[in-house]
Amino acid sequence: MRRGKRQEYDRFRVENLKDTLLFICNRLAEHFGPLHWWPADSPFEVVIGAFLTQNTAWRNVELAIAALKRAVPLTPQAICGLERQRLEELIRPAGFFRQKAQRLQLFSGDLLEHYQGDLDAMLAGPLPQVRRYLLEFKGVGPETADSILLYAAHRPSFVVDAYTRRLLQRYGILQGGESYEQIRTLFMENLPLQTDLFNEYHALIVEQCKTFCRKRPLCDSCPLQPHCAVIL
DNA sequence: ATCCTGATCA
DNA sequence: TGATCTGGAT
Q1: In chain A, what are the domain boundaries?
Q2: Residue whose CA lies closest to nucleotide C7 C1'
Q3: Measured at the alpha carbon of residue A202, what is the angle toward residues A94 and A142, in degrees to the nearest 5?
Q4: What is the CATH number of domain A2-33+158-221?
């Protein structure tokens, strides 16, 4: 009987992606409460954090940003004005410090040269166009571009990361071989295009995967039980 | 498929 | 001591 209900729900789920995606979001929101991302004092600080957090624990990013803030104001002018090696030393705790220092200065330089340092101006215009512009920067892949669009520009561009893949795959929505763009499109075609929703949803997925849906999952206390299809 | 990088935790 | 962390470039 319990088994029958489970099968029935599985069929319902596959045919109603929109409802399922909202259901997951609501469940996580009930469990974790509001997370109010992205923790930063300015949109440009969000950009800095988006570069620094690539394949890096957020804790280490905090150390780097704190050191950077003690040294200079977080503006494109100041980032460009730093000696490369000096910038490398300041952001060292975030790892990959050489490539990240170079890429931060390339981005800041373009922002100064073409937009007089006005980030809002750079991020204005049609979403797909701005996204393509961001993706041209060295060090900006799809996740970093969408993070900047969502958390610095407050635009409804869904952020997909390794956590998102893992959660959706275990839940039974993804099979495993899907591309970044496919997964992003899945969210954006099945959810209302609302910045606040995308903002909270991605933050909740990160929190969920750090807490329960880890590589070694903790299904016992997971807020998505018994709906998840994870096979251990 | 491999490299870039440092701090934390199992 | 190794795996992992809000990836991206070559």
Answers
A1: 2-33+158-221, 43-152
A2: A54
A3: 65
A4: 1.10.1670
Q: Which residues contact A188 (CB under 8 A, 6 or more apart)?
A: A156, A157, A158
Gap from A206 CA to C3 C1', in Å? 18
Closest residue to B6 measured CA to C1′: A95
For strand B, which nucleotides have at least one atom less than 7 Å from a protein CB? 4-8
Burial A103-130 (b: 16+ CB within 10 A, else e): bbbebbebbbeeeebebeebbeeeeeeb
pLDDT band at A13 (very low <50, low <70, confident <90, very high): very low
CA of A38, C1' of B3: distance in angstroms? 29
Could you please state the CATH topology (level 3) that the domain comprising A43-152 is classified under.
Endonuclease III; domain 1 (1.10.340)
Give pLDDT tens digits for A77-120. Answer: 999 999 999 999 999 999 999 999 999 999 999 999 999 999 99
Angle between helices A17-32 and A180-190 (to 10 degrees): 90
Amino acid at site A21: L
Nucleotide C1 C1' to residue A216 CA (A): 19
Residues of A 104-133 whose CB lies less than 7 Å from any atom of strand C:
none
Helix (H, G, I), strand (E, B) or coil at A75: coil
Whether any strand C atom is under 7 angstroms from the Cβ of A169: the reply reads no
